[in-house]
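Reminder: ligand-aware prediction takes two inputs, not one.
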Amino acid sequence: MASSALANALARRNIHYGWVVVAVTFLTMLVTAGAMGSPGVMIVPLEREFGWENSQISTALALRILLFGVFGPFAAAFMNQYGVRRVVVCALALIAAGFLASLGMTRVWQLVLLWGVVIGFGTGLTAIVLAATVATRWFTQRRGLVVGLLSASSATGQLVFLPLIAELTERFGWRMALVFVCGLLALAALAAAALMRDRPSDLDLPPYGETVVTPPPATSVGLASLLLVPLTALRDAARVPLFWVLFATFFICGASTNGLIQTHFITLCSDYGLTAVSAGGYLGGHLSFGRGVGVDHQAFLEKPSEWVDALDAGSLEEATPTLAEAAGARVLLYRRGTQIYAVSDVCPHAAGPLHEGTVDADLCVTCPWHGSRFRLSDGRAVRGPASAPATVYQARVEHGRVQVRAV
Ligand code: FES
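Here is what comes back for the chain with FE2/S2 (inorganic) cluster:
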């Protein structure tokens, strides 16, 4: 067997086989962490392809996290009953099967079943309990180092694989990224099948730090009894206040890192990052240049800067908004006694015809389209929705003609 040959070869170099088991466990947890984090990358692609709501996808991911936590304590029972190697290989195969089956999913319930239940169960079996089991079975010295290394594998897995998975998703789609994840899981499963051993005694080795081979404990209790152990431990621990302090701190930590950041951070970046910028740019460009929303509609009009002819003075009736054309510019003329007011007839808001509006006692014209009010004396917008002032012209009467020029 490969593990026996490797153990002998390492023993000749004074290297304990426990480090190989740690390496395989590290790889397993590394890949599992990448697999755990990968759905967070795929929320947006799934929303786009299937039209699912973020909340629907999040339900599946929340279920996965719940089962990840719930099955963690029971993973030790399975390891005691069936052995670490079998449990690890089965867990990796289960996760890979869940991902592979999801390549053909079309319904939300399939997502919940595969990504929620199947992958939640599989990842729960390889959670931190695996690290603790390996550390206590294989090491009596350096346990802290081993647990620290294996605990770091989760963060490392996300650090290493998430950018890669995100890149694959971006370039080739979420299915190709999942195939990549399944390839990693298969690699870890092969390594576990070939090199993982349940206990040092399987290789006739003492645990690291010991000199005597410890025989495996007799397995006289059944799986049902083993599965009760976590519940009994929970009942006992619940009576100790310190347990609840630890529970609360771990709950907050898990909810924020796994629940919020791991699952939704990428979607959030997408919401506030490139996608939002692109969408905002498109929307802004379309609204500004396509629809002219928010644009001062007088801004690009030609305005005569010299005196130009506009209208026969005799035809400009008292207190009547009148449209005139002055060198191609549309101008609203309004006479009150001897005073003539002239402003651009094009409403800055959306180019409404101001001469069709009404002029009130305050000498403000109200646009007939959306009700913007402009003061005739200086063009100021005294009421929106227009935010830009109306262009004001000077007006005079020369030889019986009304003339205007832009101020
Ligand atoms: S076009 Fe004048 S208020 Fe909208």
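DSSP finds twelve helices and ten strands in the chain. Residues 347, 349-350, 352, 367, 369-372, 385-386 surround FE2/S2 (inorganic) cluster (CB under 6 Å). We will return to this case in the review session.
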